[in-house]
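Practice problem. Given the sequence and the SMILES for magnesium ion, write out the predicted structure.
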Amino acid sequence: MRGMLVGAMLLAGLVAFPIWAQAADEPFLITLATRAVILALAAVGLNLALGQGGLVSLGHAAFFGIGGYAMGILASHAQSYAPLMEWPFVIEGTRSMPVIWLVAVLASALAALGIGALSLRTTGVYFIMITLAFGQMLYYFAISWTAYGGEDGLSIYVRNGFPGLNTLVPIEFYGLCLVILLVVLAFHAALIRSPFGLALNAARQSPERVRTVGIDTRRLQLAAFVLSGAITGLAGALFADLNRFVSPSMLSWQMSGEIMIFVILGGAGRLFGPVAGAIMFVALEHLLGGVSDYWHVFLGILLLLVVLFVRGGVIGLLAGARR
Amino acid sequence: MTVLVARNLVKTFGALRACDGVSLDLHRGEIHAVIGPNGAGKSTLIAQLCGSLAPDSGTVSLLGEDVTGLPVAARARRGLARTFQVSALAMEDTVLANAMLGSLGAQGRPWRFFWPVMRDRALREAAEQALERVGLADHAATRTADLSHGQRRQLEVAIALTMAPKAFVMDEPMAGLGAEGSKTLTGFLDTLRAEAPILLVEHDMDAVFALADRISVLVAGKIIATGTTTEIRANAEVRRAYLGEEA
Ligand SMILES: Nc1ncnc2c1ncn2[C@@H]1O[C@H](COP(=O)(O)OP(=O)(O)O)[C@@H](O)[C@H]1O
Ligand SMILES: [Mg+2]
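Answer key:
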């Protein structure tokens, strides 16, 4: 119950803050909040695999980056009026966000299916290493893929469009991202309570038990991994659109690490954990990054304190242990 | 009719032959007890029957079908229910959630992503009924980690019940139950054999001799005798090797 209250307050803050920033004429703060919301979405994706499924993926930047490149590639072709492909059929670029999102979700889901199917043959530290290795493979691939900017990445001049909105207005784009986050959180909340969620959570705690009642744990975890990758991929498309830029750094292992930090800082397995974690990260980066170049040290100390002393991250601290 | 059959199962761990050519049947309607000293290979045998360990050689069949190559989940779906010597439960979840996991598996489709599982009448009733039968109904809302050791054993049995299995395989279900608990569970298992036969690994000799239709004695990976309780009691080799009596 307290978890719901904390969540509601968090969401109220996410609605109120940009309205305040708008009134105070601080568009930069709205952009900052947009960044937090999009990173939160990426972390909600990882939370499904990590928090619910117990799958410690250190390669989620792969999906984040694939979503980013889906946006970059489609929009750059629309920008240059050169089709992506002419044979056997013509595929044009696009500036439409819904189409880009669909492509980002499908591409990252497909990648998660492949990566998950191979990685889930292992467990524990091997799983971590294999997901990391896949992430690095894609990272180096993007660096060498000069057709789409290679190391320098791809810039898009104009933010992509959404029917009925002017996405160039910061608060309108923010609202769009927030709605997507809310929809995905609602999906996640339903999933936790569903038969699938029950089995997935049990498989994290005792895989042998779940197999013993006749459920194939690997298929369960693969499904969770695919959903997880798809959500993080969607976040990647939005992130690239926010920056109007995509580069290999979205695929880097540091990115994977940051997404994981959001989840752990906020509370793995908690519905609002990743949201709290991403907001804290962005706020600290903004507040401390100006004061000291070494703000990561403070982040490190904070993370250490949370991991050592607070079970269930910041949400666990505020809302108490999971029932 | 024979429900579960093991033929010449061999399992080695390095130089140790933990299971050394074990053959065994479980007939409909019976309780077949497997006894033997610690380290005899009883749990290793169960793991091969249920699919969590692959035998080096030998076969396992369930209801006439060779299941030797099938994984744990596939054997469970064909009607094999197992309880563990060391409880394997979702400790953070409620007792009811654990029991519902059993009915979820029995129903065969965890692939529903939206409808709240707790509002699934059929699943819930099957789970509640099973908890009622093992005497855990009052603890349905308790977190599993807060259960006593004995209650966890009861929950293991309840999960097996929700699966409405064709055969039970139980690894020391009485362990740590205490005299009272053992007696209750003994009474319960006595009625359970009518629903499905039980392969019972157990150290509690009172329970074994009260319940078993047949007993197999496993020593150092080999079955040295199989017979009725009277035959086993009278068997000199068993008395020497296991029951610890001078012949
Ligand atoms: N995974 C394993 N690796 C190596 N040795 C094992 C393994 N599992 C069991 N053993 C050994 O096999 C023998 C039989 O063990 P177990 O089947 O647990 O016996 P029981 O259940 O009859 O007490 C023991 O000596 C044990 O140490
Ligand atoms: Mg044992």
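Check your answer against the key. The first helix of chain A runs from residue 2 to 23.
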